[in-house]
Amino acid sequence: MTNTSRRRFLGGMAGGAAILTFGTQAPGFLQAAVHSGRSDSGRSEKILVVIELGGGNDGLNTIVPFTDDDYRKHRPKLALAANEVLKISDSHGFHPSLKGFAELLQNHQLSIVQGVGYDNPNRSHFESMDIWHTCQRKEENRSDGWLGRSLEQRGTSAGPDPAGLHLGGEKQPFALMSHRVRVPSIRSVEQFRLNGTDSQRFRDAVKELADARRSPDNDLLSFVQSSTSSAISASERIEAAGKSYKAAVPYPETDTGAKLETVAKLISSGLGTSVYYLQLDGFDTHSQQPDAHAGLLRQLGDALSAFVKDLTAQGHSDRVLTMCFSEFGRRVAENASEGTDHGTAGPVFLAGSQVKPGLIGKHPSLSDLTDGDLRHHTDFRQVYATVLEQWMGCDSQPILKGTYNPVEALALKN
């Protein structure tokens, strides 16, 4: 290939460099930097969707122990009454804004793992979230995340699709960090697309590269050619899916609703991605909690309910599991500002057609506290072990840096 042709090709690449997030098999010297996504054969594989509830969700007013006298004693203003909650059992109920969760539970599509946390809890948002993301503490030299390690262990085959995907403009979560697997971040499905002019320009450049004579740096050029061809292929598939996809149910007009509709669209397009990650922030409710918390829970519940209904109608429900978690719960006692401060244990939610529905584990005691906080009884890595081993087919021990017994939260059909 002539120097002029090479410059023209790489110059054409500059205008659309973002599409290289769809890397395919790289030459040996580049494999550490870029790792491919799954091939089309990955379409039948299990998919994990993770929703991070940033700020520390108040688990006590999410899953409400409405018959507990200690609950009302510690929260004279914030406690929800029995006639307000959406009852799960004779003693516990959902926050009244979680009608979406109540519908999922009624349809046997929601598992509620109670009392989740970890030993020696940290009340810093950043440090606690990093612990959840990496399964390690600061002194353990953290360099990658649990989902990044899981994608490395599962391996990927040549193909155009990213193994994992982060939806949102926020900084990419530590959980997805990896030494060998590249996980792109996007704000919307439009970022996958190339317009007609760009697509033709790239096609012409790729053809020119394919017709070129071999040269000493052909390994690099072959890699760029392969990556670009894969990116165009993925873009066109998603473009076609975007035109043909029609949600089976209306999604709420919220940020979380839009992100989950995008995930459903990408799944329906046949994208081979196995992990999707999105965030819903705002749960740091130190003051005037009732309205803010109600709005956040409504956004979460309504969006997730629509997502699961849509996947069911599209025929994907048996292969998609959604997990919702927060870095910690809130303190048992309300503060003087009608809010709650940083606490410890809280619930984790698993949604889909292959969960064991209902409450998993006992609600933490409100009379046996540690410095005013709930005592956890389930380590969050036990929930991860469940997802990794029973859903994603991974060996959880090297990913979690230890052995943790799974919880009985899934009821797999196949």
Would you kindly provide a written description of the structure presented here, covering whatever features stand out?
The protein has eleven helices and twelve strands. It is an alpha/beta fold and 414 residues long. The protein has a single domain (38-193, 252-400), classed as Alkaline Phosphatase, subunit A. Strands 1, 5, 6, 7, 8, 9, 10, 11 and 12 form a nine-stranded mixed sheet that branches. The chain has a three-stranded antiparallel sheet with strand order 2-4-3. Helix 3 (99-106) packs parallel to helix 9 (289-314).
Order of helices and strands: HEEHEEHEHHEEHHHEHEEEEHH
The CATH topology name reads: Alkaline Phosphatase, subunit A
Q: How much of the sequence is in beta strands?
A: 5-15%
Low-confidence stretches: 4-43
Give me the CATH architecture, please: 3-Layer(aba) Sandwich
CATH superfamily placement = Alkaline Phosphatase, subunit A
Principal-axis shape equals globular
Task: Kindly provide the name of the CATH class.
Answer: Alpha Beta
Count the DSSP helices. 11
Major sheet: 9 strands, mixed
Helical proportion?
Answer: 25-40%
Let me know the average pLDDT. 84
> What is the radius of gyration?
23 Å
Distance between the termini: 51 Å
Tell me the domain tally: 1
